[in-house]
Queue: 3 jobs
Job 1
Amino acid sequence: MQPTPTPNQRAWRRFRGQHRAVWATVFLGLVVLGSLLGPSLTGFDPNAGGELQYAAPTAAHWCGTDVHGRDLLTRLLVGTRISLLVGAVGAAVALVIGVIWGMTAAYVGGRVDNLMMRFVDVLYSLPNILFVMLGLITLEAFSTRYLNAHAPELVATLHLTALFVLIGAVSWLNMARIVRGQVLSLRTRPFVLASQALGAGHIRVLARQILPNILGVVIVYLSLTIPAVILYESFLSFLGRGIRPPQASLGTLIADGAAQLNPLRIRWWLVGFPAGLLASLLLALTFIGDGLRVALDPKADR
C-alpha cells in the first residue's frame, strides 16, 4: 500500500500536469541563467562600442549590433537582469504593503476596515503611473541640486532604489483587496476563534493561523504581480523616466530601437528582439502564475 501523498506532493503533481507552466518555468530558468551570466556568456562588453554599427544578426552577433556597435544579445541579457530585478523587488514591496494592509483592514473590521478600503478606492481612481513619474522627477531635481556634482554613483543608486520602491508602492492595491477578502472568510473560522479563546494575541493569530491559510493565494497573485511590475518599468524606461544609461533594461532597449526606425531602412532587430523577449517573459510568468493557481488549489484533485 502506497503512502498517502502530502499536500506539497499533491501540489507538485498538479503543477507538473500543467505543461504550459512547466515549459514556462524551464524558459524562465534559462532566461534567468543567461541574464546572470551576461557578458561572460557572449564574450562582449555590454557598454563597449564597436566598429560594426547597425550590423544585422550574424554568427558573430546573434542579435546584431546597435547604433554604437555594441552587441545586442549581451545588452539583452544585462537588460533582462535589471528588468527581472525590478520585477522581483517591486513585487516584494507590493507584497509587504498589500498583505499588511489587507490583513489589518479585514481583521480589525468596522470603521477601520471601511476607512482603509475607501483609501484604496481613492488610490484606484488616480493615475498611479503619474505618481511614479512625479516621484522620480522630484528625486532627479533634488539629486541635480545637491548630489550630482559630488556623488554620481550615489545618484544612480538612489534613482534605481526609488524606481523599485515607487513601482512597488503603486502595485499593492489588488493584493490588499484579495488578502482582505480571504481574511474576512477566515477570521470567524473555529480554529481562529479557538486560538483567540486560548489567549493568543492578535499578531500571533494573524501570523500563525490566518497567514498560512492565505499563503497559496498570495503566492499565486505575487507571480502575476511580477509581470505587471516589469511592464510598469518597461513603460517608464520607454518614456525615458526609468533605467538610466549606460544601464539598460528591456524598456530602454525597445526605446533605443524605436528611435532608429525610419522609412528608409528598418533595422528590425533593434526592436524585434527586445520586444519579443519582453513579450515571451511576460507570457511565461503568466503561465507560471496560472500553473501555481491550479497547483495550490486542493479542489483541482476533484
Job 2
Amino acid sequence: MIISNQELENMANRCRINIVKMIHAAKAGHPGGSLSAIDLITGLYGTSLNFDVNNPNWDDRDRFIMSKGHASPAIYSILHEVGFLEESDFMSFRKLGSICQGHVDMKWTNGVDFSAGSLGMGLSFGLGCSFAAKLDDSDRKIWVMVGDGETQEGQLWEAIMAADFHNAGNLKMIIDRNRIQNDDFVSKQMEIGDLSNKLKSFRWEVKEINGHNMKEIIESIKWAEIDNGRPKAILANTIKGKGISFMENNPSFHGMAPNDEQLKLAMEELS
C-alpha cells in the first residue's frame, strides 16, 4: 500500500491531537518534544519501518528506538495509528497499571523496542541491535531517534565512534533538532555547534532536512535505507511544540500539560 504525503500529513495531525489529549488527561507529560518529532516518526512508520502488528516480537522486524523516551506520547499516538494500541490505552497515559507509561517501556507496550529513562543510551542500544542483526544475517534496519539536547551526552559520542569502526551500515540515527531541552534553549544550556560536521568527522553520512516537510522526510528516509557500510544520520531541524501556536518554541512546554482552556485552543488550531 502506497501512502501519499498528504495522507501522512493527515496522520501526523491526528497524532498531534491525540498527543495533546492524552497529556491533558494525565495532567503531566512532555508535549513539546512529542510534537516536534511526530512528523518524522509518522514518515518512518508510514513508509519504511518493517513490523507486524499481529506478531510484535517478530525477529526480523526493523527496530525503532526512541532514545528521547520522555516523548512517549508521540510513540503511543503512532502505535495507535498502525494498530498496536486502542484509544483507551493511550488515554490511560501515566496512570497506575497503564501500558502507556511516562517513558516508553518494552515490557508493557507492544511495538516498543527500548525501555527509556536517562538520555544518551539509545544509540548504544541500537548499535547492539545492529550487531545482533549482522550475527543473525538479517536485513533488518535499526532506527534511533535522539534529541539535540541529548547530543550533550558523552555516551552518545562513544556509540557514534564505535558505529563507524564496526561498519554499522544498518544503523540510522534521526536527530530531532528542536533547539530546546529540559530547562531552556540548548544554546543557553550548552551549545552543541555544528552537528553535521561533527558527525561527518566521525565518518557518518549526514543529510540535513526540514523535519516538518513530509517530502524531505520521505526522501531522507529512502536515502538512509541504503546500507553502504556507513552509519547514517538524518539531522532534522524542527520546532518544539510544532502545530500549536502557544507551545511553539516555548521552553515551558517541554514538560507541562495544557490546562482546559489551552486544550480547547489547541484542538481548534489542530482541527
Job 3
Amino acid sequence: MGDTAHAELTVGLIADPGLPLELAEELKSWLPQRLASIVTDADWDVEVESLTLPLDDDGGVKLNANSKMLRDQRNWNYLVYLTDLPKYVENEPLLATVNAGYGTAMVVLPSLGLVRRKGLRKLVLQTVDALHAANSEDREYAPGESRFTRLFSRKDGSDDAESMDEFETGKGVSGRLMMQAGMVRNNRPWRLVPQLSTSMAAAIATGAFGVFYTSIWSMADYLSPLRLLVISLLSVAVMSTWLILANGLLERPRGVHHKERAITYNTATVATIVIAVAVMYVALFCIILAGSLIIINGQFISAELGHAAGFSEYINLSWLSASLGTLAGAVGSSFVDEQAVRRATFSSREFERRQISLMDKDEDKSEERAGSDS
C-alpha cells in the first residue's frame, strides 16, 4: 500500500469578489496540507480564482451548468465555489451543496455567521472530502484518523441530474440568526460611510452651530444623559429611515416563502444602514468634540453656563450637536447617488440579485401597462 503512486488532484476554489475572495486566499495554503493529512491516497494542490458566475432568472447561481467548462479549461479535479449570496433550501438557510456528478460544491458564507473562518475551513474540507469519496472506490486515511461524518445526507428530491445536489442547512432559529448576522457582515456597513460625504458635510456644518452658539451650550448642559441618548438614537433612526426609503432599499421578494425572505433580506438591509449611520454619528461626534476643545475656552464656557465647566460639558455639547448634525445629514443624503448607495450597502452578488429583481418588476409593470392600453 505504501508503494502505491499517489494521484495528483487539484481543487479549484472560485469566489465572488470581496470578502469571499479574501477568505479563499486564506484557504489556499492551509487546505492542501490538511487534505493530505486526512486523505492519504492523493497529493493535493489548491488554486484560487475570483470569478462571478452568472445568475439565473430566480437569482440563483449557475454553478453546475458551468462546472464542466471551468474544470476542463483549468484542469481542476474538483470545484468549490464560495459565494456571499444567501440562499434557502427546504425553508432553511443553505450552508453548502455537493454534486458528485459534476464534481462541484458550493459554500454559502452568510449562513456561517459573523465568526466564520473556523467553520469555513471545516466545511470546505468536508465538501472536498465528500467529492473525493464519491469518486474513489478505495480510500486511505492516516493512522488513527476517523472518516469524516458525511454532512450531505439529504437529496432535494429532483430526478434532474443537474439538480441532484446533496446539501446541508442551518437549523432552527440559531441558523436563521447566523445567516442574518452573516448577511450584515458580508455587506460590510462601513463601506457606505464614504458614500455619505454629502450627508457628512451637511452634518458637520449643522453640528458646528453647537460650537459657536451659546444657546446650544445651555441646552446641552440642561439635558440629562438619558435625554441626550434618546435624541441621538432618534437622529440615527431618522437618517437611517430616510436613506432606506429615499433609495428604495427595501425589497419585496416573490415566489415560495417570500414573506420570510422579505423579513430576512430587509432586516439585514436595515441593520446595515443603521450600523453605517451609527459609524458616521461617532465620527461626527469625535470631529465636533475635537473642534469644541480647540475653539471654546474653558473659562468662557464656565461663564456662559454659570458654573465650572469640565470635560463632561464638552461631551454633552458634542453629543447634542452630533445629533442635530445627523438630522441635517438626512436631508443631505437626498443628494447621494442612489446606485452608489445600493452598491455600497450590499455585497456584490446581493447587489446583482437585487438588480435582477428590480428589472423583473419593471418588466412586469411594462406588461401591465401594455395590457391596459390594449
